[in-house]
Amino acid sequence: MARSLPDRFLTPTDLADLLGVPLETVYQWRRKRTGPRGFRVGVHLRYDPEDVRSWISSLMDQEGAA
Q1: Are 12 and 23 in contact (CB under 8 A)?
Q2: Residue 58: in which H helix or E strand, if any?
Q3: Which residues, listed in sequence order, are joined to residue 41 by a DSSP beta bridge?
Q4: Within a domain: residue 26?
Q5: Which of 7, 16, 17, 33 has the greatest number of CB atoms lying within 10 Å of its CB?
Q6: Distance CA 48, CA 12 (A)
Q7: Residue range 12-34, pLDDT digits in tens
Q8: Is residue 7 part of a domain?
Q9: For the whole model, what pTM was predicted?
């Protein structure tokens, strides 16, 4: 990944910006359980940068196996 991930928990908007996808795509991934693992802090959705890294790595591994 060209840009490093921040050392703080990411918002859905942060994730969309980092990956260059629409915000709605992040929410679709969550609904379909296909994106990085997220968690709630009250009503706020957050993503751990390490979980995002792992998810991206798994996508890259799948691409390499295809």
Answers
A1: yes
A2: helix 49-65
A3: 44
A4: yes
A5: 16
A6: 11
A7: 999 999 999 999 999 999 999 99
A8: no
A9: 0.84
